[in-house]
Amino acid sequence: MNIKSLLLGSAAALLAVSGARAADAVVVAEPEPAEYVKICDVYGAGYFYIPGTETCLRIGGYVRYDIGLGDVGSFDGARSNDVQDGKNQSTWYKNTRFTLKTWTGQETELGTLKTYTETRFNFGNSNADPDFGSNSAHNKDVSLNFAWIQLGGLRVGKDESAFDTFIGYAGNVIQDTLVPYGDFDTNVVQYYFDAGNGFSAVVSLEEGSGAGVDGQYGVGTIDSYVPHVVGGVKWTQGWGAISGVVAYDSNYEEVAGKVRLDVNVSNELSLFIMGGYGTDDNYNDATYDQPAGGRGFYKQWGGNWAVWGGGTYKFNEKTSFNAQVSADDWKNVGVAANVAYDIVPGFTVTAEVDYLHAGKFGEAGTENFAWTPADKKNSVGGLLRFQRSF
């Protein structure tokens, strides 16, 4: 028994030693450190570092649904032919839009390197008379509204004209161009200067675009190597701002300018007034066949002068009232007012009513008759907008 026990014990010891040596031979690799997305708070909320780089990225946008009714033309309703008897009648104007935005920022030895893009996708019907095209709901054109690069103060790419962006849009209403204050889409080479004490300035070389007064006619794109030129200055303080821009239209060799005053009356009320003046000696008189005459890329209003005014009143943190009144030398008058309500953060419903009186614009038998909304002197419409921003 002693010999048998000794043999069994020896065998067990050998197996244990062998097993220990086998276990010691296994090498477990160290796990790779996980590279989590890091928050970048240098440029504001929503940015994060692109893994493996020093570039900060922000992704945002909105989904919007518009319901419009009223007169056809500059706004807000639509018309369609009855499928049974062919009668031309009023119908809803509807449009759904998805907008994707991206921002990037990175610090370099030459200053901050930034980019911004905005792409819009639309589905809906047209708010034009069906006699001028189909009014069926359909996927509309995809538009690249912004795509620019900026290093320090130098910006290049697709933007909206500094004639509008630097001095500011005409209020917080949806239909802010009932009396237009300048065309928008253009390629640019710009330089921005910020003194840091509230004073800023811009110089912008612009290509323009083909869209005219109604988005279909006009020659806004430069026709030589001479660019359109915009210059602007602004002084911003806690009470508001004073700003001005001047634009040279190289196609027609005409000049237009705007000045603006913004006043923060209180925490609840902010007001603005903006005036525009432009020369028109070289513009051809408009006719029915050539409706773009009389205006360039910048002086989109009728006649020499125009004025826009309005403001915003915040009833509380969720509800605001916005209004704008506009008029020009051709006796065109626009009024727009809305109430915007934030149901929850990021989801806003806006109800707006719009009115346009077509002055010289709408006189039958004159050179401007072709631009009249639905050939009416007075047009009324409204929009109900649902927008989820993120």
UniProtKB/TrEMBL annotation:
Signal sequence segment: 1-22
GO molecular function terms noted in the UniProt entry: porin activity
GO annotation, biological process: monoatomic ion transport
InterPro entries: Porin_alphabac
Localization, UniProt: Cell outer membrane
Keyword set, alphabetical order: Cell outer membrane, Ion transport, Membrane, Porin, Signal, Transmembrane, Transmembrane beta strand, Transport
Pfam families: Porin_2
GO cellular component terms attached to this protein's record: cell outer membrane; pore complex
Chief location of this protein within or outside the cell: membrane
Topology versus the membrane: Multi-pass membrane protein
Domains: entry comment: Consists of 16-stranded beta-barrel sheets, with large surface-exposed loops, that form a transmembrane pore at the center of each barrel. The pore is partially ocluded by a peptide loop that folds into the pore lumen.
Family in the record: Belongs to the alphaproteobacteria porin family.
Function per UniProt: Forms passive diffusion pores that allow small molecular weight hydrophilic materials across the outer membrane.
The protein's name in its UniProt record: Porin
Species assigned in the record: Mesorhizobium kowhaii
Lineage: Bacteria, Pseudomonadati, Pseudomonadota, Alphaproteobacteria, Hyphomicrobiales
